[in-house]
Amino acid sequence: MLEIWGRPYSSNVIPVIWTANELGLDYTLQLAGGSFGKLETDAYAKINPNRMIPAIKDGDFALWESLSIVRYLCDRYGAGMLSPSDIQTRAIADQWMEWSASRAFGPVIYLFFATVRTQPDRRDPTKIEKLRDEAHEALTILDAHLADHPYVCGDDFTMGDIPLGCVAYRYFNVEVERPPLPNVEAWYRRLAQRPAYQNHVMRHFGTNPDEWAALEKACASEGVL
Ligand SMILES: N[C@@H](CCC(=O)N[C@@H](CS)C(=O)NCC(=O)O)C(=O)O
């Protein structure tokens, strides 16, 4: 049985959980990180010596780094579907996954922290506007690409859409004015029709640390997603 270690509200864990659900995999979620702890244990260091989430165990095989996990799951359980079999199409998927991490994730996650994870009276409008502009500037590159393609690799949804789809949910759900990005918005609406995206990415993310802790407790009592 596949084990996914992490907390389901963590930005690096969500792509792994979404992938497992797109692939229809049976897995157990081992709640770890944040208030769930466990990262300091010797047992966890054997799974991920960085003591970070996410990590997986697939039988005896352990793997960490979220994008490596997404690729592994798609290669092993979704070859020819989420992991394109054509080498160049696969390379385009890789390109957008790397670009998500190197270019889009940073400004969007800092924008998320500066808004959702900061109490309203402590928010800095200048910083928020700067991060919004950086995020928008990055996403204009994706917008131009999506003008000719419904998904990042062409006609089909692939692993190339997964990290960026997680970034997009945060970008479109923080409380800021956003300049239009028509092609990214249309692609986001396409993703929003996918049940696995609705159930595992489009989650309420709490507006203050107390609410966030309460979400984690609720999640712990659910035991699974
Ligand atoms: N590059 C790593 C980053 C992992 C990472 O930063 N994980 C954070 C959560 S998003 C973490 O483990 N934080 C400690 C915690 O959640 O307790 C990946 O993509 O897997």
Automatic annotation (TrEMBL):
Cross-referenced InterPro entries: Glutathione-S-Trfase_C-like (IPR010987), Glutathione-S-Trfase_C_sf (IPR036282), Glutathione_S-Trfase (IPR040079), Glutathione_S-Trfase_N (IPR004045), Thioredoxin-like_sf (IPR036249)
Query: Domain GST C-terminal: where?
Result: 86-221
Q: Which residues form the GST N-terminal domain?
A: 1-81
User: What keywords would UniProt list here?
Assistant: Transferase
Annotated Gene3D superfamilies: 1.20.1050.10, Glutaredoxin
What Gene Ontology molecular function terms does this protein carry?
A: transferase activity
What family does this belong to? Belongs to the GST superfamily.
Stated name of the protein: Glutathione S-transferase
> Organism source for this protein?
Marivita geojedonensis
